[in-house]
What does this fold into?
Amino acid sequence: MTTSPLANLAIQTAELLEAVKALSSLEALREAEPLIIGKRSILSTLQKSLGGLEPDDRREAGAQLQQARRTVEAALELRRDQLALGARAERLASDRLDLGDVVVGAIRWPASSGHPGLVASTQRELEDVFVAMGFTVSDGPEVESDWYNFEALNIPPAHPARGMWDTFYVEMGEPETVVLRTHTSPTQIHLMESAVASNSLPIHSVMPGRCYRRDTPDARHLATFHQIEGLVVDRGITFADLAGVIETFTRKYFGPDISARLRPAYFPFTEPSAEFEITCTICRGEGCRTCSHTGWIELGGCGMLDPAVFEAVGVDGDEWSGFAFGFGIDRCAQMRYQVADMRALIENDVRFLRQFS
Amino acid sequence: MKISLLWLREFVELSESTEELRAVLDDLGLVVEGIEHVGEGLGDVIVARIDEIRAIEGADRVRLVVVDAGDGPLEIVCGATNFAVGNHVPLAPVGAILPGGFVIAERKMRGVTSNGMLCSSRELGLSDDHEGLMILDDLISPKVGEGLLEALSLTPDVVFDLSVEGNRPDAWSVAGVARDLATRLGRRLKSPAFAEPNAPESSATFASAGIDAPDLCGRLTVSVLRGVKVGPSPAWIAQRLQTAGMRPISNVVDASNLVMLELGQPTHPYDAAFVAGRTLRARRARSGEILTTLDGVQRQLAKAGRGLGDTGEDCVIVDGDDQVLGLAGIMGGASSEISRSTTDVLLEAAFFDPMTVARSSKRHSLRSEASIRFERGVDPELALRAAARFVEVLRESVPDLQWLSSPLDVWGVTPQRPSVQLREGDIERALGVALADAEVSRILEGLGFEVRLDVEGIFVVPPTSRLDIRSGAAGRADVIEEIARLYSYYRLPRRTPSWPEPGGLSDRQGLRRHVRDVIVDLGALEAWTPTLGSDADFELVHPGVERVRVTNPLASEESVLRATMTTGLARAWAKNVERGVGDVILGEIGMVFSHPLATKTPRATKGGVGGLLALNLPLENERLTVVLGRSEDSATTAVAFWSVLADRLGLADVVVRNDEVAPPGFHPTRSASLVDRETGATLGHVGEVDGDLLGKLAPTLQTQRLGIVDIDFDVLADAALVTRKSHLAQVPSRFPSAIIDLAFITPTNVHAQDLAHALRTASELVEDVELFDVYSDGNLPEGTRSLAFNIRFSSSERTLSEGEVAGAREVLIATGKRLGVVLR
Ligand SMILES: [Zn+2]
It folds into this structure.
């Protein structure tokens, strides 16, 4: 009977572990690694020597060797982490800077201009048009309960109309009770609820903001997008006021030769409802590919507030009436600047961002 | 929904051009999304017989086909392979112009001349089928040389693709669209022909019907049809179905589909031989029941859905053995399907509760032409009229058809028809224009409403087809919309309203704009980075922290709401470095989110059915984050960026205090808090992005310095937390200032800004104090550095004397001493 090639394995392993412990820097570790567990290591040499054993013995010896290798590897990884941590601590210590001691006056700022975001500046232009027409601007949250995003807007639970919005649901509470808002309309509900609570009707406000729909992005759509919503609740407001506001906005924002038209549509929260289209900004109404040769481009939806919405928020529909409208801010930007692919807006390519002033 | 002009013309006379009709339909809210011309350009296409098929040398994709189209053999090169000698196929001869303007010319290929083109169904604009040539033998008994249109009994037609809104259950049919057109154009609405039961035997002697769930099934009618012979439909029926995008199957199934398209009532024919007990009943599905629908999918019934308010209710049709035959109003099962051997048919025409159908259809991800109509609401009165129309249509191919008398007709609960009152002035209050009662009546009666004029106004009862019309104030709005729609939105007046309340931005919105302007002035490019990120990215900055997840993300990389903009901006910067344009400052104002369990101040709101539940939603925190990635940037320039911003925002005194523990994502030894001296509020942080974080986003950038300024906009916008400089103008003294420099050996624990503040407030004569040099080396005592200040003294009343300046200098030195600093 010959001596097992692994007779000294325990001692050899212990020596390797000692060697690992002695490593004093990451660099040393990198250098020593092949000798400890690599092809040139004693463990690899032993592995080769197992070839001559009987199959059963070889299996058993192989397992032993594997065990030893795992022990050494684990020690090496531990050491690597310790050294990395130490190196980081050292680096951070030498990097330490007291920011209270920065001599601001000594820093010369190079002349290079920044650029506002296309969507943000479009939003500002839109807000300005509405502010000039007497609107205030209101903000609202991006994560909403189903009450604000749907039910108070006359879209009851499991109603087929909920399918009109491809909703991102948030993992929170009962299933489908929390959503990323699919439109800015929930802000309407917040506004009306608080106006009723503080007895401060009327409301004339626009509500810009970020919305989300579970819609695969393409050249014309993003799953994250921006809308601006308008809400008027006042005495004696009619569909004529809605049509007038849409028309005035269209001319002020897109120019005097662009006008709006309304055609019947369905939204659960308005009745009567309308889609509004504007003269195609590419062909100025002559007809082109963008507008499918109709001369018109669909911009958004609008309508008179549905009595069911008034009921949900506690506004007396006999005293007050109102309208709402909404459309895409990014869409406006895309149309005005003829952005061929909407996805450019979220790619943050400096070459794109630098164009806008 | 695709709708044929020829078909519409059976209901209402229409002489308008296609474009005129498009405009009318659009204006009625039946938006035309496309127009197809069927059979147009087929005048030149003729029937040809395949006489010979030969290979062409050196070509493996095409073959030479010899056909006879009445004028002797003609050689044509053809790429299709789905035909054999003897088949009849459509031939477009040389000179023919196909739909879309494609002109057929003589072509030479591989030394062979092709004298025309053999066509597929799609090339002729007849269907989407392009799996090979259109084989006419399958459809008709073709005659060589006959024109294709005559051979197929095809009349050129125009098909409008209409988008029908969710509140127009009545418009999901040719008759419904025709009714709108007839009313708008002031024309008569014609009615198609309906059959009458023609067999004396009573239906009840042959079959039975029942409703066990009257709330789910409002009406179940079963007609018994005997002597049925299943075969192909007449050509006109096949064409009608094809224009609507449906495939002809057999005369019985086609008649059912035709009636659905025409009147809007889905019907379901069963082979009576395979319906146990010849009984159809509607009941609730029971938990554990399974149905294999016609599409071959096994479906678990009565299983609660995920959706809010979805209890899992399914309405099913069962036979006499209580076995489930189909999912009511959505899809049948395979067992009782019509086949070639069917002779007796039970025809189901029913009304099902729209919400039940909608929920079942969504839960089982199963939409059919029937479910689309039922979930919007089919006219409950329509069932037997649809059966009568079905029989009339089927009779064309089965003249001896027997319809047993007294069709079975069981009722459950159907929607109440509201009575809506339009009070004097209601229309004007809604639309801004008064309409004559006569015009209102004409419109509403045209749409099938019952109208009664009264001293108290107009009382209106909607037709049974208009389940969308509600009662009370909502019903009033619904009816007014119909009036406005038919009157035309285009004709309604426009008025730009005004009101006494001023418009404008809130302080917070004004501040947001101001901040945006300043960061742009300082050279930042405004970015828009994703709100939704990956779990891994979240973990990089906030390991182990509870996070807000999306249940149904588009991709796992977009499944978690961001808790910081640092990662997104650093990534955007890294990407630009890769593009070779990374020498920039990027900034963003946006929301970051904290899980309600990870914040002390979640957003309390209400939710759940009826909004009755108190809910804690994520905290939404608006922030301004700027990353400075120019070659000269570091924590130092970040401080400079901040201090210009603070100056432009008019902040009185915000101290840059080094952090003991850096905020997540920041360089641990190069970060400082921005603390309002008065209120103690932390406005944000300034420093560098942690190199380890950068290294994980882009390994080559680990050692780059990326400056960062991260401001909590919620704090910045809170007037109670932020101290601002007086807005009052300070006119500088007209007398000359005295300027001196003081350098102090300052212990490390004395903050430069604290010292400056102490000096600034030490004497009335101090106009300004500015740090201009920081110096430390081995010559200074351990744990100190030298801070040199530029100090400006002045008085608004006189030129300061040397003595006064010297005195003030002493005061400042004494002040320093109290803080433990020594003049150098
Ligand atoms: Zn155009």
Observations:
- The first strand of chain B starts at residue 2 and ends at 4.
